[in-house]
Design a protein that fits this description.
Elements lengths: L18 E13 L11 E11 L4 E5 L6 H16 L16 H31 L3 H4 L6 E8 L11 H13 L4 E5 L8 H15 L4 E5 L6 H11 L4 E5 L7 H10 L3 E4 L7 H6 L5 E2 L8 H14 L3 E2 L6 H10 L6 E4 H10 L10 E3 L14 H5 L5
Helix pairs in contact: 1-2, 2-9, 4-5, 5-6, 6-7
Amino acid sequence: MLNQTMLYETNVLESRQKIVRIELHNLKNIPITPPPYRELPKTEGALLLEVETSDGIVGWSTSGYTHHVVVDLINKYLGPRIIEQGADPFRTERIPMLFDRHTYERPLGRALISALAMIDIACWDIKGKKLGKPVHHLLGGARDRVPVYVTHGAAYDGAPVYTAQELAAEAKHLADLGVTHLKNTVGRQAVPDPYDDYKRMAAMREAVGPNVRLSMDGNLRMSLVDAVKLCTLCEELDISFIEEPIHYNEPANLAHLRSRTSIRVAAAENEKFSAKDLLCAGAIDILQPNVNNDGGFTAGLRSANLARAFNVALGHGNGNGPHNIALHAGIANGGLVEYHFHKWMAYNAIFKEVPQPEYGYLAVSQQPGLGLEPKEGLIQEFKVSWQ
């Protein structure tokens, strides 16, 4: 086991309810519904975490963007440490304290944060089930529905890049189904091409008309020069926001971009820059924490409070919409939640009940916990070793 020296350990009373089992399941080749007019992707994988307490309550969560090394990290290191300490799932601020900075945080970085995020989310699911309340009530209960946008048009599993005509057709199809806000990826060429991306966004705008909101996701792929050019070209298209257009979310460059465009700039923290870095630099109009990537609901609350202190809007990106609903429904400054199409389809394939977009909104589950319970037999059918 990793060195267990803890710099800031504090003593707590023994809990009646303890975590007794933690297991991360690596699932592969789960059949999903492919995008409209496409055959791929038609399967998806998932890291599904199961946390059980001494009184038989089970909490569930999934990963965000992470490496499969977290399977061993949780199953062999973090899980046993939490269990041997008799950790209480209600003490979600305490659990990360079991893993000190020098032994865990410094060498493991974002892998540790994403692993702890899964554990935190499952603990909040347990809290809700134990108390008979939905998680968004425990987070503050500000609302029972949240606004949603749908990300589409990203090619996966070796599928060819969408043409402008395909993007337009898919956008119109989704708009006809009642989707009121669409986001598409930009800068995905081998060398980012703002003129090509403008044509693609213009084709979407023409297809859906003026009443559907459009946004862009740069996936950290562009230089400052390319991002400024793209925003300048696209301002006439009434773009709602551009997400993470610049390499690594470098705060100074994002701040410069903000000074050159009327399109709102959105971003999340990452391995290089924190939410505080983005806010202090005046780099963003929208902060986008993702509870599955960035430390769970416990850390999400801290990010939300930071955004509120800086009077910056809160939003969400990078997938896992069905889990992030609870944060944005719970807090007063909650905002837009993303449903990334193929990840949305993966949630539909994995869980028994998933909130579905309806004319721009998601109704939040009123079930105790998160309301996301895996389908019967799913783990047995699709679990594989991580290698």
